[in-house]
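Hello,

Our lab assistant flagged a job as stuck in the queue for most of the afternoon. It eventually completed. Since we weren't sure the result was trustworthy after the delay, we are filing this so someone can double-check. Below is the sequence as submitted and the structure that was eventually returned. Let us know if re-running is recommended.
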Amino acid sequence: MSYGYYPGCYALARMPQYDLSARSIMRKLDVEIIDMSDAPCCGPAPIKSVDYRMASALSAQVLAMAEKKGLDTIVTLCPECFSSFMKANVGLEEDAGFGKEVKHLLSSTAGLDYQGGVKVKHLLQVIHDDIGLKKLRKDYIIRGFEGLKAAVHSGCHFSRFSASYHPVGLEDSRMLDELVEGLGIESVYWQLKSWCCGAPILAFDRDLSCKLGGKKLQSAKVSGADCIVSLCPYCQMQFDYNQSIIEKKVDKRFTLPVVLFTQLLGLCMGFDKKEVGLGMNRVSADAILDFME
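-- returned structure --
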């Protein structure tokens, strides 16, 4: 299997343990990746809110670069990037006028043409669908967890239904839950599972962002979870890096480890905590190692 690898700006700049753990597991899974380190930003929501066509042209530029390399699929770590590429593909395919404008921007600014058809996948989809959980457990998992309870958080961009993406189960996709459960971890019910983490509004309303984050952390805590498992670098940043800020704002202590699914999977595949960047997490996640068989 060969994929264009586009981890996303945020993951590379703020979440190096995500890229580190992802590369570790892909290498062991024999997933061939072609780095797209020369590609621009995906054209995320902040750019879309100012100029949707230019944001779409940025997305199309990344897809066109993959197409030029002879790649038919891009894999990303970031649900925001995933969503941006999906929306660009759908917009170009379904709206001829929009497609013409975006392709003109792409040609005039980057000198590229995009024929369409480059597929986009999140790394979780590659593991869940392309490799398959049965093969994963049979051929690659050498350790597991026993007694660990996790609040699974897929995030908005990956799990919510839109015109460009139709997740299984609509707003409660169980893809991440199934992977976690396959590692011997109990995915607990928590009431605010589908709520936004609050990260998108942190820049302009810190109080509201912290209140949302605090309610989510409290919901995970009262569910009996020993940790939160995430797949979104923004959500990971909010729950882990910003947890101490949230605690001060809401006057509560959570001390709840937040781990990326790639870190958990890497541990179960035999990598040590350094190889999956567990020590890079702000809230110590060493306690979860006590649950490993």
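-- support follow-up --
The delay was a queue issue, not a problem with the job. The result is valid. Residues 82 and 122 are 6 Å apart (CA to CA). The chain has a mean pLDDT of 93.
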